[in-house]
Amino acid sequence: MENKLLTAKATLPVYDRNKLVARIVHLGFGAFHRAHQSVYTDILAAEHGSDWGYCEVNLIGGEQQIADLKQQDNLYTVAEMSADAWTARVVGVAKRALHAQVDGLETVLAALCEPQVAIVSLTITEKGYCHSPASGELMLDHPLITADLQNPHQPKSAAGVIVEALARRKAAGLPAFSVMSCDNMPENGHVTRNVVCAYARALDAELAAWIEANVTFPSTMVDRIVPAVTEETLEKIAQLTGVRDPAGVACEPFRQWVIEDNFVAGRPAWEKAGAELVADVVPFEEMKLRMLNGSHSFLAYLGYLAGYQHINDCMEDENYRRAAHALMLKEQAPTLKVKGVDLARYADRLIARYSNPALRHRTWQIAMDGSQKLPQRMLDSVRWHIAHQSDFSLLALGVAGWMRYVGGVDEQGQVIEVSDPLLSTLQAAVKGSEQGEARVRALLAIEAIFGNELPKEAIFVNQVQKAYQMLRERGAKATVAHYAAAL
Questions:
Q1: Distance of alpha carbon 397 from its chain centroid, rounded?
Q2: Residues 196 and 316 in one domain
Q3: What's the confidence (pLDDT) of residue 238?
């Protein structure tokens, strides 16, 4: 298979892959990592002679992804999709691929304990951190965490695996590594540090102190739209390159990576491949989470309810386009601390990216895991507006759209397949409440999402009630049109 991919009509890894050293262990070999961090590292190897390589690991699920990668000598294709043309790149920086349940946890832990490992990076989605999105703290009663604390040498959670590897490195006199989250969370480095250190403290105070003193947790902001891979995507990649690649991914041409330059054991020169190394990532993260991810969620819920399957379908509706643009500039931009960025241009660029007809980014995919996403994408901004006594009606509409969506029935009476780590809590709130005000109050009462204070803010509750009621009576399309007309 290797030879086949190396004959693909694509940019090929012509560098000597034998010289690569697996200095980065990456947890979460999903589509986003393949299309983002690996591409930067591949560019470094191809254009700057870098020898940094990856050991790719999946801990839970994704067995097939790892099997496909191994089958192809750890090569895979990334296709960039624009409206005009597709281009492809075969990425060659993965040295090894492991799955905890297939290759054995010991093999994964041994890989993490190799002396040259300098960075452990993560794309495990928000729910993989076993934390409360509202507070940012580790949930010690999370089933994975409870199990790991009882059996710390056989961990299943990412935090458990990282702490066990660090414990072994400490015992062996090996240096620590940096732990770099590349997931969409505000202050993802701080969240990761909180979770890892809280888990370590629950296990062994001395180990926790060593981790706090020796490990850094750089924050990052990652941006590239990578739709879930479908059979159609793989078919298009095969037509483009002449080679069928089950591990292939497709994404938009745009990519951005802002990294806090805080590494204990060195790092690749990612800035040579276009990354921005900065002292403080937080303002950039907030900008992206609120303007891009917040408007994405807004479009996902209200678009899905209106029958729009893809984000670019929403963009063809002038009212959705106007509402999303106004949400970014009028309600999200004022809450930001970022300096030196033209936010109006950023918003225009986002709308252009959303309109890319080649992407086919499903509203249903973006709508997943809303309980983990709402706090940072919308609710933090709502709190800012309440404090500043300014308008947040579109944010309230977004929250109401989420509430209609998690009700589990669309406007045609069809069942919505809601995917969320708090699904049983959401279903209990929906089942135990009548449609209307009672439903809104029941969902607002979920503390893990809304915290304690927000549900007591009359202005917030009233705005969400009003939007929810209109969505019920008029449907999403007419409601968005109503809000857009008021802009």
A1: 23
A2: no
A3: 97
